[in-house]
Amino acid sequence: MNRKKISTPLSLMVISITLLIILQALWLRTEYRSAENNFSRETSVVFRSTLYQLSDSIFFSSFNVPEEQESSAESERFRELSSRPETIRQISIEPYSDDTLKKTNATESGFNRQVTVFLRDPDNPVDSIRVSRRVSSSRDMRWFFTDQYHGFNTDTIAKYFMHNLPGDYARLSLGIKERDFSYPSERPQFQRQLHDTMPFITPFFPLAGKLYAAEFYNGRSFLFAKLLPQAGFSVFTTLLIITAFYLVFRNLRNQQKLLLQKDNFISNVTHELKTPVASVGVALEAIKNFDVLENKNKTLDYIELAGQELKRLEMMADKILKTSVHDYGKEIKSSKAPVVISDVVEKVISSFRILAEQKMIHFSLQNGGDSTINGNEEHLTQMIYNLVDNAVKYAADGKEITITVGEIPNAVILEVKDKGPGIAAEHRTKVFEKFYRVPTGNVHNVKGYGLGLHYVEGVVKHHNGKISLESRSGKGCRFVVRLPK
């Protein structure tokens, strides 16, 4: 296999996937930061609004209508409207203008302001009350009325805060942090504390003489949960692209492998064809140029030699067609009959008698039980022939080939065992692939096309059987075929 042709697209695929993963990671990080900023902004706004609502409730409960300004009836009406949350409220705080106050010492009197509260019933717009009160203080009026109030604890603030948060924030687990605070002297500190926050804690806001902030214990997991759809889509897309790249690379590798096997097959077939073609050419040339026609016996010998080589060519072509092109599966399924495997084995062994004598190979046949199955005799014969031929090719001279035919419940077992060089572990699962031959470098001591065992496996499968290989380097091979009855 050309490693350069494979390594280049593989490198491009790895680079593309790496860049894709980096891009997805940057996108998810941006999404997370955006969600974190939105979370911080929304929770801070809601928390501040919650404290304003609480301070407003304190303010209205503490704002008494001056008796000299309003009648008792208006005071009662003010209390009634201020206690209703749907009441439309408006508060205005303006500097109080008075010539008498202007002449007084500003340090002693402080900043004089007039607080005006306007309440209107939304169900009855005509029903409204406007109340004013003069206050001397340098502080924000909202906090002026809440400084001395201590009626809200952290649990109450948390309860109101959770109630005001959007519905999808219900999974949050939070706590309220509290800090001491004095408004006039610690205003710079208050400004700093507004920004003294972490990603999952709101800024500190004042209420009733203290600073409060909401801290979220599971803020990170909450954001991760909200980003699960984006993360899932990102992972799914990445896996889909990786799978597509893998399939493309596997197909490319298989094509390269198939091309290599095809080249080896062509080389082996060419080598096999040269010998009979050359023999026929020599025989014809001798008959034509060396006056062998005058010698009838020699002429017959050359003609017989040519006939044998042509028959060999015919057998080679038939074997290639059967194992590589011909759809023998349909033929097996359409023409089945009772076949005695032990009889087929004996017939195959007899066809190897002469070759076995030349190589001094001894066949040991062991029969046991009924070996009759329903199958195609022609292809079963060729299957067994290929197994025995493979054993004869690789068996060393003077060795023994053991063939065992046995019976187990509902099946026939055929074993072919040789004492050849064996097959290494990395090649055992590949020997049944089409055109595959165990690599031997540039040495071709054994002829073949890499089709025999592939054909054997195909015939066994079309008979609903199974085949397995047991082998170790230097210890020979043992093929076990199981055919159902």
Sheet with the most strands: spatial strand order: 8-10-11-13-12
Sequence stretches where pLDDT stays below 50 over 5 or more residues: 99-110
Helix-strand makeup class: alpha+beta
- Provide the residue-averaged pLDDT: 77
Q: Using the alpha-carbon principal axes, give the shape.
A: rod-shaped
Annotation field: number of helices: 16
Roughly how many Å apart are the termini? 43 Å
SSE pattern = HHEHHEEHHEHEEHHHHEHHEEHEEHHEE
What would you note in describing this structure?
By secondary structure, the protein is of the alpha+beta class. It has three domains: 3-224, no CATH class; 228-323, Helix Hairpins, CATH 1.10.287.130; 332-484, Histidine kinase-like ATPase, C-terminal domain (Heat Shock Protein 90, 2-Layer Sandwich), CATH 3.30.565.10. It is built from 16 helices and 13 strands. The protein has helices at 3-62, 72-82, 99-103, 106-109, 141-144, 154-164, 187-194, 219-226, 228-289, 296-325, 328-334, 341-351, 353-359, 377-394, 425-428, 452-462; strands at 88-95, 112-121, 124-136, 174-180, 205-207, 210-216, 337-340, 362-367, 372-375, 400-408, 411-417, 466-471, 477-484. The chain has a five-stranded mixed beta sheet with strand order 8-10-11-13-12, with helices on one face. A three-stranded antiparallel beta sheet has the order 1-2-3, with helices on one face. β10 (400-408) and β11 (411-417) form a beta hairpin. α1 packs across α6, α1 packs across α8 (219-226) and α12 (341-351) packs across α14 (377-394).
